[in-house]
Write a structure and sequence with these properties.
The structure is a single chain. This protein is an alpha+beta fold. The chain folds into three domains: 124 residues, Alpha-Beta Plaits; 117 residues, Spermadhesin, CUB domain (Jelly Rolls), CATH 2.60.120; 176 residues, Sandwich (Jelly Rolls). The protein is 14% helix and 32% strand. The chain contains five helices and 25 strands. The strands form six sheets. Strands 7-9-14-11-12 form a five-stranded mixed beta sheet, with no helix packed on it. Strands 16-19-24-21-22 form a five-stranded antiparallel beta sheet, with no helix packed on it. A hairpin with a 4-residue loop joins strand 21 and strand 22. The termini are far apart. One of its GO terms (cellular component) is membrane. InterPro entries: ConA-like_dom_sf (IPR013320), CUB_dom (IPR000859), LDL_receptor-like_sf (IPR036055), LDLR_class-A_CS (IPR023415), LDrepeatLR_classA_rpt (IPR002172), MAM_dom (IPR000998), MAM_domain-containing (IPR051560), SEA_dom (IPR000082). Keywords: Disulfide bond, Membrane, Repeat, Transmembrane, Transmembrane helix. It holds the Pfam family Ldl_recept_a. It comes from Notiomystis cincta.
């Protein structure tokens, strides 16, 4: 009897193998078809028409990225992000670029730059090498962003080379190089920018990331301070009040609110004379102007008519003294009246008088006799003894003819004033003392002048000022070869016309010491 149920016969091993091979073959075919389709699409995109043209471009990324070891790995996220950013940047400058792609090659390059990009740019129309470069340069100039926020291309580094034949492997290389700077330049913290070592810690931001003026780098070895930004403050020499170290350089930046000026004085000051010097500059950076060089036991008060100043102390290899403690305060110079701007006995410094920057040398503040003794006073006029101060042409034998000049702050015209002073002109070679007025346009007129030897005495001078517009007072002294020092002391201003009949005899020693007129 036959069974009604169907009988199932198992597949043989040959049949199973055949079915497996068939399935694999189908998968391979599908994969090849898909791969071919993708290749065709990629090729069609790169060769949109038969006139596609490629150009090799090279440029340096000046800022916005820095070297890290991960950038040497082409599969790292940092590398891919940088490649994407560069491509986006180039497309911003040249929107008509048809195609850019990257491969993963890296190489080493010995140069100062940190990141150099080499890209191949493809255009659907023929353009000249000059046009490619010019358009890219113009795009960089017009669109270079803030270097502290994103990538910035060095426009001077852009190079474009000839027509590159298209092939399936489009080349775009990025060179990642640890930055190096040729002396005397140093590297900023961004790892990219090189600046002169003189630009570090000078109060002016030169590095894109501001690292050249960081407190960590620039804090003075003297007292750990660098930027002094309050309306008042202090700084001091190393180890103060104990002796400072040898061969040190300390620098401080003082910045008070804009529109104010800076007053600098000292509670104590003792350094090696003419060797360990505290220099006070008006302004910051490479354009700062030297206003005072202090050494010895100088307690002089310095006025800087700017809201920014630089102080620098340098010691040599020997004879360390106890140093100094300096204090600064901000003040408003526009609130000074004419009398405060002029009156000065030079006991506490030059008061509000300013050394001219365009003369041959500077007036010197002197205590006691000048040298040699054949010219110049032995003592000041204010006190008539060796404790007092006066100002003099540069002390010593003159070797060339030179002019020194000090100027007042601008004065406000108001009725008449009497300008008075004491001068000392002694010696056969003494030349000329001149007082002038400079108006608001800078035009000068002489209001007082004398020449020659007036004896071993302090002599009184006076002149009436009757100006109708703003003006400055100028004292010029001219020195010749040989001993020819000229000294001035006790400059004063009183209201009203000078009394021409009030002639004062020259004095060797004043009978009564003049009351010092020192700015508060």
């Amino acid at each position: 009897k036959k069974s009604s149920d169907k009988e199932y016969v198992p597949l043989s091993s040959y049949e199973i193998s055949f079915a497996s091979l068939l399935a694999i073959f189908v998968c391979v075919c599908v994969g090849l078809i898909a791969l071919s389709w993708l290749s065709v699409q990629d090729l069609e995109r790169a060769e949109a028409d038969v006139n596609t043209h490629g150009y090799m471009g090279i440029f340096k990324i000046a800022s916005g990225t820095s070297f890290t070891p991960t950038l040497q790995n082409s599969s790292s996220a940092d590398f891919k992000v940088l490649a994407f950013d560069v491509e986006k940047l180039v497309r911003t400058y040249w929107p008509v670029i048809y195609f850019i792609s990257w491969n993963n090659e890296l190489t080493s390059l010995f140069c100062i730059a940190s990141v150099v990009a080499i890209v191949t740019l493809y255009f659907t129309q023929m353009v000249t090498v000059e046009k490619v470069k010019n358009e890219l340069v113009l795009g960089v100039i017009a669109n270079n962003p803030n270097p502290t926020k994103t990538l910035k291309i060095d426009v001077n580094s852009i190079q474009i080379t000839g027509n590159t034949a298209f092939c399936c492997a489009v080349i775009a290389l990025i060179f990642i190089i640890p930055a190096e700077c040729l002396p005397p330049a140093e590297l900023c913290a961004d790892g990219v920018t090189c600046i002169s070592e003189d630009f570090f810690c000078d109060g002016v931001l030169d590095c894109p990331d501001g690292s050249d003026e960081s407190e960590k780098r620039c804090a003075a070895v003297c007292d750990g301070k660098f930027m002094l930004t309050g309306s008042s403050g202090f700084f001091h020499s190393m180890n103060y009040p104990k002796p400072y170290n040898t061969n040190i350089v300390c620098q401080w930046i003082i910045a008070v609110p804009q529109g104010l000026s800076i007053k600098l004085n000292f509670t104590s000051f003792e350094t090696q004379p003419y060797a360990d010097i505290l220099s006070i500059y008006e302004g910051l950076g490479q354009n700062k102007v030297l206003r005072a060089s202090l050494s010895g036991t100088n307690l002089e008060t310095i006025y800087i008519f700017s809201h920014e100043a630089t102080a620098q102390f340098m010691s040599d290899y020997s004879e360390n003294y106890n140093g100094f403690n300096a204090m600064y305060t901000a003040f408003n110079a526009s609130e000074l009246n004419n009398y405060e701007k002029i009156n000065c006995t030079f006991e506490d410094g030059f008061c509000f008088w300013i050394q001219d920057l365009d003369d041959d040398s500077d007036w010197e503040r002197v205590q006691g006799p000048t040298f040699p003794l054949m010219s110049g006073p032995e003592f000041d006029h204010t006190f008539g003894n060796l404790s007092g101060f006066y100002i003099s042409t540069p002390i010593g034998l003159g070797y060339i003819e030179e002019r020194v000049r000090i100027l007042s702050l601008p004065l406000v015209p108001s009725d008449m004033y009497c300008l008075s002073f004491w001068d000392f002109m002694y010696g056969g070679n003494v030349y000329r003392l001149r007082v002038s007025i400079s108006d608001e346009r800078g035009q000068e007129k002489i209001i007082f002048e004398k020449e020659g030897n007036y004896g071993n005495n302090w002599n009184y001078g006076q002149v009436t000022l009757n100006e109708t517009s703003g003006f400055k007072v100028i004292f010029d002294a001219f020195k010749r070869n040989g001993p020819s020092d000229i000294a001035v002391d006790d400059i004063g201003l009183t209201k009203g016309k000078c009394n021409e009949d009030n002639y004062i005899e020259p004095t060797v020693r004043p009978t009564v010491a003049t009351t010092p007129l020192v700015p508060s």
